[in-house]
Design brief:
- The complex is a heterodimer.
- By secondary structure, chain A is mainly beta.
- Chain A contains three helices and 32 strands.
- In chain A, the strands form three sheets. Chain A has a 22-stranded antiparallel barrel.
- The longest helix of chain A is centred in the middle third of the chain and has 10 residues.
- By secondary structure, chain B is mainly β.
- Chain B folds into two domains: 137 residues, Immunoglobulin-like; 120 residues, Sandwich (Immunoglobulin-like), CATH 2.60.40.
- Chain B is 13% helix and 43% strand.
- The longest helix of chain B is centred in the first third of the chain and has 24 residues.
- Classes of the chains: A mainly beta, B mainly beta.
- The interface between A and B is medium-sized, with 25 and 23 residues.
Chain lengths: 651, 305
């Protein structure tokens, strides 16, 4: 079988990847806890990714210190949008680790072909399909337990494969009680449970003509968010896709994939569990997306290029009904049923000039039209913006170029890009969305201009068999940076709120990220990894941006011997005294947290077994990080064990 | 002579036959109106107009106790938003029908609406529009009345139907209270006179930017006479708040100012459904405070949307 170029995607500084469904001993980048770790734990392994935690579930990935507004997240190229106005459900929370093969990250403006509106980066969650000509049958079962919060995970899946047909499907269940912070304090409202079912089918009626279909159903209930004033009764998502691939085509393009997809998310908040609720409210949200993309990949000479055409239509609806004691209910739309149609064209060319020189060019242009489908929601917003239109159209796009040069032990790379993004539905049309970070009610601004950014990045690496060192930096210069600013004339809706902020375009903003990595391998069974990062963010009024990581250090010692991997390490951060005080951020003290884990792959008779054992927060330290919303503490000491069985074994 | 008689009949016979023949071929065999006594077409509305009138009136209900019959062949019908009047602003629509056919008369006029509440020890009237406006070109006449209290009221009025004049006193009708917690009519004293602030069409208000109408009426020297729109010119600032929401308010409201037709109009912005207190600050033409005050004044209407 000819080696298709998409299997050998050229990796440079921009692309990082973590393998989700890995086994111990394969040497790929993976999380120490093993494949049953949560999606969020897997994402946290990517460099340049931090997680904003509002509870023990559904953490929000932040790339290059930029959150969901500036990051594109797709599932196998499919666009999907979260349904909660308070960001309790980043789209990564609607899949499980058992659905995924790997998670791939593109940093900055140079996104994957289907990414739209990415400035910080683009994440693509790649689904796990068994494929054709794999083992005829395979059965997996996993179970795991963690002491902190009595976390239990159970998963089963099966795969069948022939030359013409494959299917793999599975079921996964995850349950957690309230967790304890360091020192034993139980964090109320931090429980959750989640059930996930998935199925993939592939059919190849003729060689290299492939039809594939996927269904994922994910339902999480009774989810607590200790950082917020409400929890979630239910978050339910269904993700479906149907695609047609042609492989090994002759001519300019050798692979052509067309996929049609649909996903539907419903999300219901719940305040009935909280003791001190002033006014009870119902806050449901709904997101539906239907889309299609068509991707052509080809090689010619030293070029590997991709051409992608995509279109999607998404609707976002959220409302709030408040029930005051003895009074009439009050109703408003917080997302006024906004329909967004977006279509774009992307071009990527990876050029290997010589084995030493590599250039990558990428460009995407998209046209977007939005319309407020709810007249009531439109009338409400018109109070604040009397001359606003019920719809808007705009053009967005991005251009990126990068160059890498490798010679013996050295590698140097640098890149640049320019891109624009459209404001999100919250930023354009959100209505009285309370932000517990700064205690303000936020109102969208229909007159917002696209946000623009220029990116510059560079890295220098040196390595031999024992030592590798890398220094990297990127900088983003924004124009018309979108962020909320207070409007003292306006009256808040939430009782006790500090005021009202309206999203504005700020003249300028900058975010700079730097990292220094050093890996030392004195023996082939021992590796010492070090990584120091420092970031900085400021906008044109001179204020520091919120949610920018402080000086941090990650260090670990890894042992590898036959089929055993063990690791001990520390994660340290300095106090973030230069926090975004203007935006309600308060400093978080510095901390150092240690962990140990060991994993092994062995045979139990005919069953291939992966066993993981580990201790997180070894010294039971009470701490929180800069990205823990409202300083909710992280877990105290946690001891975990999990095992995955597989039959038959890989031959 | 016998011969001449025969000759004289023939032309008449031919004319008769022709008439029958022509009328049989002519015109329109469609809607043959039934039960139309001769003469109705002159004074009543055309079928087209009747259809449009029906459409307009379909949105309203006859006010119980007000629909009545005049001397002669006509019925005066009075419509409103609901079958019962309530305290505060009520739209009234007057039409006259020919009792037998139900068709509406074109040449009518209604005037001098005079509401009276008889409370044994005291009798008093209430604010009225003091005019009747025709709805489009149809013989439907609109006015408003704002009863101050719930209870029994008499609404008398004068009418003209073609050349006939008359007046009707009618039965006592029951006015019901405003829905619980709401208040659509308020009063204030100024220069030894009592004025009434009537909020028009409170049930039409909804989320968003509303054009709000109101009337300022002055209590008559003789309290049994209807209270007419005040001749003085005021301006009324409006500050809407939600009492259930910590007095959350909306921006960009515009003061009520006097319009050519006698009503006061402004812009009221309601950010969400629920109960709203519309705080009022009444000022005279020079801008001096007459009643109420800045922001959370004690003088306010209460509505629920």
């Amino acid at each position: 079988m000819m080696l298709c170029p998409q299997d050998t995607v050229f990796k440079e500084a921009a692309i990082d990847e973590v393998v989700v469904s890995s086994s111990v001993g394969t040497g790929k980048k993976a999380v120490g806890k093993g494949r049953v770790a949560s999606i969020d734990e897997h994402l946290g392994q990517l460099s340049k990714v931090e997680m904003v935690r509002r509870g023990n579930y559904a953490w929000e990935p932040v790339v290059n210190n930029m959150a969901t507004e500036r990051v594109s997240t797709t599932i196998d190229g499919m666009k999907i949008f979260y349904a909660c106005t308070d960001k309790m459900d980043p789209v990564t929370s609607y899949v499980e680790s058992s659905n995924l093969q790997r998670i791939s990250l593109n940093s900055g403006l140079d996104g994957n072909p289907q990414a739209t509106g990415n400035i910080g980066g683009s994440i693509d969650l790649k689904l796990r399909r068994v494929g054709f000509d794999a083992r005829p049958s395979e059965y997996n079962a996993s179970a795991g337990y963690e002491t902190n919060g009595h976390v239990q995970v159970y998963g089963v899946d099966a795969a069948f494969s022939t030359h013409r047909f494959y299917t793999n499907f599975g079921l996964f269940y995850r349950h957690a009680d309230n967790y304890k912070a360091g020192g034993g304090e139980e964090i109320s409202f931090s429980q959750f449970q989640k059930t996930n079912a998935f199925a993939n089918i592939g059919w190849q009626p003729a060689d290299d003509h492939i039809l594939e279909a996927t269904v994922i159903y994910d339902i999480a209930t009774d989810i607590g968010y200790p950082a917020l004033t409400m929890d979630v009764k239910k978050a339910e998502g269904i993700i479906t896709s149907l695609s047609y691939l042609q492989e090994h085509l002759s001519g300019l393009f050798h692979r052509w994939e067309t996929k049609a997809y649909y996903n539907h998310i419903t999300h219901n908040m719940d305040d009935t569990q909280r003791p001190d609720v002033v006014i009870h409210m119902d806050m449901p949200g709904e997101s539906q997306t239907a889309g299609v993309y068509s991707l052509l990949q080809g090689t010619k000479g030293s070029h590997y290029f991709q051409l992608n055409n995509d279109a999607y239509y998404n609707t976002l609806f959220a409302d709030m009904t408040m029930y005051p004691d003895g009074g009439q209910p009050m109703y408003m739309l917080t997302w006024p049923d906004v329909g967004t149609f977006n279509t774009g064209l992307a071009l990527i060319d990876d050029i290997t000039l010589t084995p030493h020189h590599h250039i990558r060019l990428s460009a995407k242009g998209a046209w977007q039209r939005q319309y407020i489908n709810s007249d009531e929601g439109f009338h409400a917003l018109s109070i604040y913006f009397p001359d606003m239109n019920q719809g808007n159209s705009r053009l967005i796009g991005r251009l990126a170029a990068s160059y890498a040069y490798e010679h013996s032990a050295w590698k140097i790379a640098f890149g640049t890009g320019y891109g624009t993004r459209a404001p999100t539905v919250t930023e354009s049309y959100g209505y009285f969305l309370n932000n517990t970070f700064d205690q303000y009610d936020y109102i969208g601004n229909p007159h917002l201009k696209n946000e623009k950014a220029i990116e510059a990045n560079a890295s220098l690496a040196w390595g031999d068999s024992q030592l590798s060192v890398k220094a990297e930096a990127n900088a983003f210069f924004f124009q018309d940076y979108i962020i909320g600013r207070p409007d003292a004339r306006l009256s808040p809706m939430t009782i006790g709120a500090a005021g009202v902020k309206i999203y504005q375009n700020l003249k300028y903003a900058q975010i700079v990220n730097t990292a220094l990595t050093a890996d030392y391998r004195p023996f082939n069974w021992l590796e010492w990894n070090n990584r120091i990062t420092y970031s900085y963010g400021r906008e044109s009024t001179g204020a520091r941006l919120p949610l920018i990581a402080p000086l941090s250090y990650l260090g670990s010692l890894r042992f590898r011997w036959k089929n055993i991997e063990a690791e001990g390490g520390v994660r340290m951060a300095a106090r973030n005294s230069h926090c975004g005080a203007e935006y309600g951020e308060t400093p978080t003290p510095g901390y150092a947290v240690w962990h140990l884990n060991i994993g092994s792959h062995f045979m139990l008779g005919k069953v291939a077994t992966d066993l993981h054992l580990g201790i997180e927060n070894l010294f039971d330290r009470y701490y929180s990080t800069y990205s823990d919303w409202n300083h909710i503490p992280q877990k105290g000491r946690n001891i975990y064990v999990n095992v995955t069985f597989q039959i038959p074994t890989a031959s | 002579m016998k011969m001449n008689n025969k000759n004289n009949i023939l032309p008449y016979l031919i004319a008769l036959l022709l008439g029958v023949f022509l009328s049989a071929c002519s015109g329109n065999d469609d809607l043959v109106p039934i039960n139309i006594p001769t003469g109705d077409d002159e004074v009543c509305c055309t079928q087209d107009d009747e259809n449009k009138i029906s459409q307009i009136l379909a949105g309203y209900k006859e006010v119980t106790g007000l629909s009545r019959q005049s001397a002669g062949d006509y019925t005066i019908k009075v419509y409103g938003r609901s079958a019962c009047l309530s305290v505060g602003y009520n739209d009234l629509y007057f039409t006259v029908e020919k009792t037998e056919s139900g068709r509406h008369l074109k040449d009518i006029a209604i005037s001098d609406l005079s509401p009276l509440m008889d409370m044994d020890k005291m009798k008093h009237s209430t604010p009225i529009a003091n005019k009747f406006d025709q709805i489009e070109s149809f013989p439907i006449y609109h006015t408003w009345v704002a009863p101050l209290m719930a209870g029994g009221w008499m609404l008398s009025f004068n009418y003209r139907i073609k050349d006939e004049f008359g007046s009707l006193a009618g039965d006592t009708i029951t006015v019901v209270a405003t829905p619980e917690g709401q208040a659509w009519i308020k009063s204030f004293k100024w220069n030894d006179a009592t004025y009434y602030l009537t909020l028009a069409s409170p049930l039409d208000l909804q989320t968003g930017v509303n054009t709000i109408s109101a009337y300022v009426s002055k209590k008559s020297d003789d309290a049994t006479q209807p209270y007419l729109p005040a001749s003085e010119v005021f301006s009324i600032d409006i500050y809407p708040t939600m009492p259930d929401m910590g007095n959350h308010t909306s921006p960009n409201n515009e003061s009520l100012t006097l319009q050519a037709g006698g009503s006061y109009q402004g812009k009221l912005n309601l950010t969400m459904t629920g109960v709203w207190d519309l705080h009022l600050h009444v000022k005279d033409a020079a801008g001096n405070t007459v009643a109420g005050g800045e922001e959370l004044s004690e003088l306010y209407w209460t509505i629920a949307i």
